[in-house]
Design brief:
heterodimer; A: mainly alpha; 49% helix; B: alpha/beta; N-terminal domain of TfIIb; Rossmann fold; Dimethylsulfoxide Reductase, domain 2; seven-stranded mixed beta sheet; six-stranded mixed beta sheet; 33 strands; globular
């Protein structure tokens, strides 16, 4: 009887533990690939064409958000380049219909965080520090946890402010 | 507990824990706009507009984030309010997001219910109604006070479509002042008084810093000048307690004193003393000071001009203004009529003489319920407004008006609304140039004064009816924020109530919340009382919006009589209600929270009593944020409280939570009264102490001292022990006992720079840290420190009296540093040694 009870309790906790880990991997993994309305290859644009990040992410140096490029920026080239590709056709359709594109947001910070790209760029932090080697990715995915501990370790190493209210709003 | 129960509980709790952990990660979207947006992400733009929460018409700038206005601030370029904004103005933004806003045209169907129709249908119905044969009847257009182009459109529409434009309706029309000004100056309008040029100001009943004409401008000018200000009133008002001297007179007796001061009607000092109840020496002294002053200004208004003697008081004050050459300019509101015009319209309706009746943003039914009874006699009723009110609810066709902010392209509109000008344009009206004001020759003042005698004042209990500083004539009743913020003097939040004196409370055996019964304007009321020190004995004060449903009789000038004999007051045998008021006690019990004369010695010798400490002082590198509040300027109007609520997404918790003592305001105004009956209003918020008692008791380090001297609160880290609140001597920390959901779409008003706090965490004033961060970010771009004046808190920004100064106290040139060094400076509960960073400057009269 005692053995049975021991087995039942151990089994119960093992099952609960498995469930929690399972849920963590199901919901909590940040490297998950998200579906995008257009298959946009960052690798091609950066490595092959040689565009800098700031060519398209125009507000990253002077505002809190990097923001998705306006379609007008895409159309600077794509009125002539690769117009027959099926993915570019989707883009052209959005442009002719004058409909904004809604991308799935990959790098998400919680609502209570006050983050500004501008200050990080001004301090000389390279985009890859947080976003990884985007130039090698055909589909962008998150490579850093973007959790508080990760942020703070970098802030400590670089003598950046570690006052809570720097980032917590 | 047996084994089975143990497993049951274990199973249930694990299941619950797993279930709650299963919330899906919501994938948010990142939008590629078509072209480069005008603004950088996170940047605000400011849109100009006009406040219409009272008839002053202050200019506002709406702070727009991502197409949604999140806050109103006073427009610094507007001459009416010069950057400041009162409580009502601050709350006015919630009108845009109000859940009850009309979103589409409504037509009353055959069943009597409103049905949504299209604008095209609405215009067709309107044109049809206006095109009908109306023998013996007239179309009428009744509107609130309008100015500028809207007024021009209404004028053109009325002329083209053969509609009678009725005098505009404002409950507080100040008709006595208008008639007096027509008689004395030839202008049937309201003046803009220039207080700055006067050296002596005597106000009779005019609540100049609450609702009278341009209260924000009055507060600004009175704070900026050093004139002597004497206020006479029958009751206790916020204006009265802010005057240099407050004299209590019998209600309705002011005309006697004015006649004596003006040397008219043969009224002697003794007669004036007998009628007003003032001492004879007081009256002769007043006359003496008036005579000696170089530029005296005498203003009568408010409860003084809304009595039987009101017109005479208004004429006499105008006579005194003319005699002393008071510089007057005139407001553009010649078209405003009085309630007498509404009575006339009521008669026309009753006689069946009205065809199509238009009501624009106005509510005669609330002011006169009998109007509602005859409203149905018009052949067709059309209402324009943003929300249904009793008048609009009685209309056949209700057309939703857009908010003034939506008419500018920067704000995304809600629902299918249109501006009044736009609607009238589609009905054929065109813009009209501004009409020149009517200037007539002045009337015969001598003849008027020869034929009038002031009515003697009767003794006994009196009911005094005043406008509300929070909801004005009642138009703010629909804005929940204005009920959440306490009435400044009584600190009652959710009304209604009647203010009574301590002596009357004793005579009637009443305590706060006890019920009194009385009848006025054909209706009886049972209202709870609030007992106030310094309230004159025998005077019962009630705010006009609490008497909705009564038809108050009118004066000869067509204003509601505001002073009523109250001999038949009853104390019905009903249980007292829990009246929500936030002041724990108005007597400081000698603690010197606002130092009086008895603390003078202590104040002057405080340098000898420095608290010793074992700890090293805090070292600050570039910034130590601090605040200075000049109590001599502060009027206690509560504009800062409202600004704080809107800026910091502070939840509105409602009446029950207030009764339980769980208000959430980060900033409050504490009224204190001394034995002489003098009030001092003290704004109280987190003092951002150097040796903050809240910090060491937090077990999880959720509150800590930040490198710039702020007591920071990290909501995510807070576990809700509430030790910090217990240890705070100023009681400025607020705990979220429950979640406070916000009705859609009011959530769009949230300031995206400030967190929404979940239940179970502590929160408090942050010195608007998000504004500081923004200013520092801007300064860092230019490789410099933040300049003085570059960053200010929401409370300091809106303050009409500019009593609050915010800045970096390490900067010796800064305004806050200068203020902190003043010899009037003290800090609240300084003797505790917590080294607060909020410096108060005592009133000149008391230190």
């Amino acid at each position: 009887m005692k053995k049975l009870l021991f087995a039942a309790v151990t089994g119960y906790f093992a099952l609960a533990g498995l469930l929690v880990f399972g849920l963590h991997f199901h919901y909590g993994v940040f490297t998950k690939r998200l579906l995008q309305p257009i298959h946009f290859p960052h690798a091609t644009h950066i490595n092959k064409v040689g565009l800098a990040c700031t060519k398209c992410h125009i507000t990253v140096t002077n505002s809190p958000a990097a923001s998705a490029p306006p379609l007008a920026v895409c159309m600077e080239c794509h009125t002539k380049v690769k117009t027959e590709s099926p993915e570019i056709k989707i883009l052209t359709e959005h442009w002719t219909k004058q409909e904004p594109i809604e991308w799935s947001k990959i790098h998400q910070l919680p609502w209570h965080v006050r983050f500004t790209h501008k200050r990080h760029i001004a301090a000389g932090v390279d985009c890859t520090v947080c976003h990884g080697e985007v130039n090698t990715m055909t589909q962008v995915h998150q490579v850093r946890s973007l959790e508080m501990g990760w942020c703070v370790s970098c802030h400590r190493e670089n003598n950046a402010p570690t006052d809570c209210w720097t980032c917590h709003k | 507990m047996n084994r089975r129960d143990f497993f049951r509980i274990l199973g249930a709790s694990t299941g619950a824990a797993v279930a709650t952990a299963c919330d899906q990660k919501v994938a948010s979207k990142l939008v590629s706009q078509l072209t480069t947006p005008r603004l950088l992400p996170g940047e605000a733009e400011f849109v100009r507009s006009t406040c219409r929460e009272c008839s002053a018409g202050c200019g506002v700038l709406a702070k727009v984030r991502d197409g949604r206005p999140v806050k109103l601030e006073g427009d610094p370029d507007n001459p009416v309010n010069r950057g400041a904004l009162c409580m009502r103005g601050q709350a006015g933004l919630s009108r845009l997001y109000h859940p009850n806003r009309l979103r589409a045209p409504q037509l009353r169907g055959t069943t009597g219910e409103f049905q949504t129709i299209s604008w095209d249908e609405a215009f067709a119905i309107l044109n049809g109604a206006l095109g009908k044969n109306i023998t013996g009847r007239r179309h009428i257009f009744l509107s609130e006070r309008t100015t500028g182009s809207v007024s021009g459109f209404i004028e053109d529409f009325c002329q083209k479509r053969n509609i009678e434009r009725r005098p505009e309706l404002e409950l507080y029309s100040h008709a006595a002042l208008r008639q007096a000004n027509a008689l004395v100056f030839g202008r049937h309008a309201l003046p803009v008084y220039d207080v700055k040029q006067a050296d002596l100001l005597i106000t009779f009943g005019a609540d100049v810093i609450e609702t009278f004409l341009n209260p924000v401008q009055f507060a600004q000018d009175l704070a900026a000048t050093k004139l002597k200000w004497i206020h006479l009133e029958p009751h206790l008002s916020l204006t009265g307690v802010n005057a240099d001297e407050r004299l209590v007179v019998r209600a309705g007796s002011e005309a006697w004193l004015l006649a004596f001061l003006a040397g008219e009607l043969g009224v002697t000092a003794a007669q004036a003393a007998e009628q007003t109840g003032l001492k004879l020496s007081r009256i002769t002294e007043l006359a003496e000071r008036l005579k000696k002053a170089k530029n005296p200004l005498v203003i009568a208004g408010g409860v003084t001009t809304a009595t039987e003697n009101g017109l005479l008081a208004a004429v006499l004050s105008a006579v005194l203004q003319e005699k002393h050459h008071a510089p007057l300019t005139w407001a553009d509101d010649d078209r405003v009529g009085s309630l007498a015009d509404v009575v006339e319209l009521e008669q026309q309706l009753a006689d069946g003489k009205v065809s199509v009746a238009f009501f624009h943003n106005t509510d005669p039914v609330t002011y006169r319920p009998s109007f509602g009874a005859v409203l149905g006699k018009a052949s067709f009723r059309v209402g324009f407004g943003d929300m249904l009110n009793p008048t609009l609810a009685g209309c056949d066709l209700v057309l939703p008006l857009s908010h003034a902010l939506e008419e500018d392209g920067a704000v995304k509109p809600f629902g299918d609304t249109q501006s009044l000008a736009g609607i009238l344009q589609k009905l054929g009206a065109e813009a009209r140039p501004k009409q020149a004001p009517v200037i007539q020759p002045p009337g015969d003042v001598r003849k008027f004064l020869a034929n009038i005698k002031p009515t003697p004042v009767r003794a006994g209990r009196t009911l005094v009816i005043t406008p509300s500083i929070r909801t004005f004539d009642g138009r703010g009743e629909c804005l929940p924020l204005l009920s959440e913020i306490p009435d400044p003097l009584t600190t009652v939040t959710y009304g209604p109530w009647v203010t009574i004196s301590e002596q009357d409370a004793e005579t009637l055996s009443l305590k706060d919340g006890g019920i009194v019964g009385f009848a006025v304007g054909g209706r009886s009321f049972n209202l709870p009382v609030r007992v106030m020190p310094a309230q004159p004995v025998g005077v019962f004060t009630v705010q006009r919006p609490f008497l909705n449903g009564a038809s108050l009789p009118l004066t000869v000038t067509g204003e509601e009589i505001s002073v009523w004999p109250l001999d038949a007051i009853a104390v019905p045998a009903v249980p007292a209600v829990a009246l929500p008021f936030l002041s724990g006690g108005m007597h400081a019990e000698g603690r010197g929270i606002v130092p009086g004369l008895e603390h003078k010695h202590e104040h002057e010798h405080k340098a000898e009593h420095v608290n010793k400490t074992l700890y090293p002082p805090h070292e600050y590198k570039n910034y130590r944020w601090a605040m200075a509040i000049d109590l001599d300027r502060c009027t206690g109007c509560g504009a800062c409280v409202a600004a704080c609520y809107v800026e910091n997404n502070i939840p509105l918790v409602g009446r029950d939570e207030h009764v339980a003592g769980r208000e959430m305001s980060w900033l409050r105004i504490e009224p204190f009264v001394n034995d002489a009956g003098d009030f001092e209003m003290l704004p109280m918020m987190c003092q951002q102490c150097d040796n903050a008692p809240c910090e060491p008791v937090c077990p999880v380090n959720a509150t800590y001292h930040n490198p710039e001297g702020l007591n920071a609160q990290v909501y995510n880290r807070c576990v809700g022990t509430r030790y910090c609140s217990n240890n705070c001597p100023y009681k400025v920390r607020r705990f979220n006992w429950i979640d406070h959901p916000v009705a859609q779409p009011l959530d769009l008003m949230f300031n995206p720079d400030v967190s929404k706090r979940p239940k179970g965490v502590m929160e408090k004033c942050t010195f608007c840290v998000h504004r500081i961060v923004r200013a520092k970010d801007h300064a860092k771009d230019e490789k410099r420190l933040v300049h003085d004046g570059e960053v200010t808190t929401a409370c300091a920004q809106t303050c009409p009296a500019q009593a609050i100064v915010f800045g970096n106290i390490l900067d010796e040139q800064s305004h806050v540093h200068q203020q902190a060094k003043s010899d009037r400076t003290y800090r609240v509960l300084e003797e505790l040694g917590v080294e607060p960073a909020v410096y108060y400057l005592t009133s000149r009269s008391e230190s």
